[in-house]
Amino acid sequence: MNRLPSSRELSERVEIDFPRRRRRRLRRRLAWAAVLAVIVTAVWIGSEWRSGQHRVFAAGRVSTAHRMIENDCGACHTTWAPLERLVNWVDSDAIRSIDNAKCLACHDQALHHHNQVPGHGHDGLSCADCHREHRHHGQLARVQDQQCLGCHRDLTTTSGTSRTFVRSLTTFESTGTHPHPEFALKRLLLESSGHPGPEHGARAVLDEDVSGSGFRDKARLRFNHAAHLKVERNAGGELVVGLGNKDGRPVNSSKNCDSCHQSDESGGYMKPVKFEVHCRACHPLLFDNRNDPGRQVPHVTADLIRGWLTERYTLAALEEPRDRSPAVGSAAAAENSRRFFPGRSERPRLDPSLAGSVLRSVKAAEAVVQQHVHTLFGHEAKGGCRYCHQLIDSGSNWQVEPPEIPDRWMIHSRFRHDSHRLMRCEECHGDVASSRKTSDVLMPTIATCRSCHSSHPTAKRFAFAAVGARSDCVECHVYHGGEGSKLSPVTTQSRSAVDAGTISRR
User: Fold this and answer.
1) What pTM, to 2 d.p., does this model score?
2) Which of 145, 250, 281, 430 shows its CA 20 to 30 Å from the CA of 210?
3) How far apart (Å, rounded) are the C-alpha atoms in residues 159 and 150?
4) d(C-alpha 189, C-alpha 200), whole Å
5) Residue 156: φ, ψ to 5°
6) How far is 241 from 255, CA to CA, in rounded Å?
7) What is the DSSP letter of 400?
8) For residue 443, which phi and psi values (nearest 5 degrees)?
9) pLDDT tens, residue by residue, 453-474
10) What's the CA gap between 285 and 365, in Å, rounded?
């Protein structure tokens, strides 16, 4: 039987001077191999640099918008930050390879809010803090939610806690620590808790009801969706028709949403509804249908209507033949024969009697224009100013109250109708066909949006394909484009709509 060696015998087999032995040949080979590898790598990188192939040392592909400068690193980078951090032995965001001046040379954008933190002028913020290049993102504007939640998880301003927006927000889902609240527009209408502050854009499109019952659409215009979307039929089942066209054929009075609401060139929002295109056919602005059948006044301000009528009746009075003419050789005849331009006599002037007649005709025509319904001119001749507008009566200086129709409803968000073209209007805007008041706000609730824009929590955590439409912050919100921006969506139609002849409901 073999005996196992003792520990002493085993220790005697160990060569104590092994670490002190020099293996110069092996070390020399390793040193030359390292030097050769550095030389080969340097030659390879140099050849790739000269050929314009920078992918071997770049962090990754740039975004689609920057492909034109993909091989010009100096267009964005001012220094090589990784080398500088290595030399200084620090890992600080204070050392950046991109200067904001490089970005602003092409992208001139406004701030988010004037009282944002960090303070005015993006102090301490770098464009690259949110827009991370070389991360295989096709669009730099589509930043991750973490970039937004860095502030909106506990929103504060330079003056303290935000009074306009919700202080804490972590997810768009209905569940979670701090879910996205109901839209501010709906919070005002539903009288729910957490009303937006006085500076929120929702208060620019809503007004408190005079009865004190809550908020309503602030537009000063009479409009009935139900009347325009109703298909009217008689006892025989035939469609009720309205005004006839030029050929004398009847025109159906029923409408649909697309009859008035058409998408703009961008496909995102709806064009303003124009009176000349969408309204005049059924609501003519007649003023003297017996003596001048079918003639209508323009859809402009009251002052311009008065001037238009004065000019028309004045020209008509001057063109009428006169029974009495001034005697030859009289002062009146000499005045009328005075030439204003060579080869043409000056128009005769209105005498006091004709001027009085013109004034009476203008006043009578204005009274007809202001009527609520032109009952004398047919079933569909409902075109007076009072039919849609509220008038400020002050005798001969009557005016139309500005309708104050908003160009945008939710000005702190963005939306595209063309992305939702497969849906019916009623799916988002509710029972439009039953709305009979202008004060009805037919905007969707956040629950309507969540029915499609919802992501599985696991999918959001690991950033793979979500279940449903996207629900990240930048899907509906834009950071740049706030106060002072040329792209600001805050545009409210404050002037009179009759001046522009447009009505907008986006």
Assistant:
1) 0.68
2) 430
3) 18
4) 14
5) -130, 160
6) 12
7) E
8) -100, 150
9) 876 544 444 444 445 788 889 8
10) 11
